[in-house]
Every structure is written in C-alpha cells, then in structure tokens.
Amino acid sequence: MPVTETVTPVLIVGGGPVGLTARALLARWGVPALLVEKHAELSPFPRSRLVNLRSMEIYRRLGLADRITARAFAPEYGRVRFRDTLHGADFATAAMVGVHTPVPESPVTGVVTSQDRLEPTLLGAADTPVRFGAELVALTEEPDGVVARLAGRGQGAGTRVRARYVLAADGANSTVRRLLGIGTSGPGALGGFTTVVFDADLGSWRARQPAGVYFTAHGSFAPLYPEGGWAWFGPTPEDAARADWSGIVTRALGPGAGVRAEVVRVQHWVMHAFVADRFRHGRTLLAGDAAHAVPIIGGLGMNAGLADVHNLCWKLAGLVHGWAGPGLLETYEAERRPVAQATLRQAVANAQLLGRVQSRRQDQLGSGAADSARVETPWSERYFAQLGLVLGVTYRSAAVLTGTDTTTNRGTGTAAGTDGAMDPATGTGTDGFMGTETGTGTGATDQEAGGGPGMATDRETGTGTGAKDQETGAGTGVGTDYVPTAEPGRRMPHLWLGPGRSTLDTCGEWFTLLTPDPARWTRHPGAPWPLRVEPLPAEHAGPWGLGPRGALLVRPDGHIGARWPEHPASGTALRRALAAITGSGCAGE
Asked: Which pLDDT belongs to residue 255?
C-alpha cells in the first residue's frame, strides 16, 4: 500500500494533558497542528490528580476553567490525610495550598480531578485533527522542517508527516527523545508501582472526612470522581501476575471496614525521576514528561508540563506567523530547563517529607503511643510547600529584557535573583528600561546552568529558598512563600481591575502593554507583533515600580518581558523591545 503524506506547521506527538493543552493553545493562535497518539483512545486510567493554580490560570484564558471545575471535586477535597489504614483515624493532615481555599495571589483556585476526566475536556477545546492509534517510528530533520513516519492501527502501510516543528509530549518513555539520542540526568527509575481502580461503598467515609489523597502504611487511596469510584496505588509486588488485588486493597482498607474492593482495572507503571539533557534538537522540542519526569508526590509533574507548552506555544506561533525570529526558540530550554530541575528537587523533597511523616508514625506505633498521638506535619498546612515554585518562577533568557541592551538583550538563559522581596535596583538601561538585581539565586544553584531557579526568599526569616531542613539537613530547593513582584521575567501579579477581571485576563494571543497613561505609548502602525495596550489603575502603578507614565510589557504567557519605570525618551523603545524579545530583527525606526 502507498505511503500517504500530510503537511502541517506543527506535529504534536502524545495525546495526554500536555499534548492536548498544546493543541488548544496553538489553535487559539491560529496555528494548524496535527496531534498523534499511539494508543487507540484517551487513557482510561485516572493518573494525575491535581490541577494547580498556574494550570487553572492557563485554562481560564482558554475558557476551560469553569468546565474543569464543574467536573472536579469540591474544594474541601483539597486536603491530604495520613492514616494507618483507610478505615482508621487521621494521625496527620494538611491542606493543599490554593486548592482547599482560594489565595489572594490568583483569580482562580486549583482543583482535584482525575486525568481521565480532564482529557476529554481538553480534546474538545480545539477542532484541529487528532489521530489515535498512530505511532511515531522515525524522525528526519531537514533544513526547513522535520519529516515524521507513523505506523499503527488503521494507518495502512504508514503515513509520512512533514512539519515545520515537532512538539514531543510523549511521556517519560518518549520515543522522540530516544530517536534523537537525548540523554537524561537524575535518579532515573525509582521503582515499579501499581494502580488499582476499584469500587467499594466508601461514600460515608469520604463525606465525613474528604480528601484528595489518603496516605496509609498499606498504599495510598484516592477518590476518583465526585459521584464515586476509587483508586489504590502502591509498590508492585514481586509476583504481580498472581496478586490478589481485591484482597490487597481490601486489607489496606483496614479491619472493621466491612466492605470488599471490587477491582475494575489494574495498571503497572514505573516512577521516574530525571530531566532531559536537552529540551530541543533542531526543530523538535520536548515538553512534559518527555523533558522531565518527577515523583508524583505533590502533583508537580503534569502541571510543570502544562507550563512548558504555555511557554512554548506562543513562540511557535511567532515563528509560524512570521513575527518572531529563529532565536526565540532557543529561549524555551533556557527558561524551562532550570524550572524542571527545581521541580525535580522539590518532588524529591516532597517524597522525603512524606517519608518523615510515615517514619514518625512507625516510631509511635513501636512505642505504644499511637492511640493518643498525632504527627505534626513538617510543611505547616502548606501542601508540600509548592506555591513559591508554582507562581514564583523567574525566567532569564533573551526573551526577557533586564536592562543590559534592549535591542540585543544578552540573556544568560538561567534564572537568577530573588523572588522580589527586594526592590530591583540596578538602575536604568537603554531606552529607560528597568533592570533587575543579578545577585545570588534564592534557590539551590543549578551546577550545569550556573543559576538557581529564581524562587522565593522568605522575607521574615531571610532564608533563601534553598534553605536546608533543620532536622534532616536536606535542601528543599524552593520556598514555601510566593511574594508577587513586577520584575521582568516573573509572572505578572494578579490584581483585580474590575469585577471578575484580573490583570492576568489582559493576556492572550498578543503582547500586552499595561500603563497608567495609554495615550502616551505609540502603537507603531504596521509593526508585525500582536499588541494590546491596557490601562493600569494608578493605585497599582507604584507597587509595581512604575511612575505615572511607565509601562510593563507582558508576554503572551503572562511573564513580564520588559519594564519602563517612566516613559522612555526614545519613541521606538516599545518597538525595539518587541523586536529584541521575539528576535525578529524588525526594530527599524
């Protein structure tokens, strides 16, 4: 049979949440994309559980947040509970920050939901083509694109896809990463685990003491859907093929439970911990678990992948539509790889914190004090202390202007500086541009890149985000606190501009210029970049480091690309900044 050929600007490999979100983002930019997934359908397994604040902000811009929330658990499920068995009493508990209750730093709230509930919503968010049962088997780089060869169910002799760019979101065992010969760094495979989806009459337990996850000494339990269904997960036993999964789960429910688990399906999987050595090979880019796989504790992995494609898709759109230069693509790895390394450190720290709780409980059980004692959770009601990582990331690259030179910004590509507890004070750069401090990073330093992840410093204690746990000596890698700041490279802070309208809502498929004096800023008719000028209430200008005629230039992903404390003397400052950020070479007078 003949081989058919398809042409598309972007080929997305992988139909999980990261690939589906990339498809929706590209569709918003008017970029045709083809998504291919080797499996015959969306995954029937629950897998990822937490959609955090930053991810819900992305989905708010896509118009999906309300639909996702409507199918998710109520906020009171944004909590973790520790028990000896599921039927037992809590010996420790903690709220998931930004999920259990709203936080003032965001217009949205994170949700607890199952991946198999999330994916159909994402699939329906765009009408660009999706091919299930199509497996990538070969990639060939050409000067003006990439040629991919597909094979699989219903594909006949195969299909050849010619794409300008390939976005690989095909998981921890990425075929794309293997075909490109990209290695990984980190602990690697941490062990085999099993998820058992089961039915049991546990509704009354869930109603009395709801939680998104119950950690026990015999595996962990999670309610799957508001209307019912459960999952158990734990280490895979040696003789998994003969395991009595119903018996294993029933015993983990605890004596006196009075119910038996009816197994619906079983899935074996491997927990990975690594970061890819490169996120880019020519016109092919890795995202999600293909680029970084982290332990599941704390729900960081999927959300980091969603932030990857939020960073990447506007850059691909600029290249496809012609208002960005090829150098913009280099900023993807420069910005996201340090975050991936920080995320891996935090996920490992989460696992250590979980181990500490369980170890303390074992000590209590051994001493006979378990009936009357509780275990103090080491994260002080902050679910594994991730808010500084989720909202406090600082990007440093050529797509962030820090006052060095607004026409040829020489970004280092690594995150540096603090999370904004200190006022940026390096003075005024070219075109009146405000720079940032370049002191030591507050996070653990990345030995390869030479910079920390740029996370929060605790303003009360003065400790950096890489501060060690005083009891274990282990570095946590990120801070528990997020301090909003309008520093270039940071996510624009959330402030309410009016009823139901956040500063984050001014971002979209365009660059946003926020200023107290919109009339003073020239739009440069004929300039190629999509741009909107938005008024910023005067009361917000001062705290953001702006005078009455200053401005922030916000990238489409909501990160600040440039800041002018006052209106620059040059009438082309805005045009020059856009040209520098996008690497387009369109900064002509």
From this structure: 82
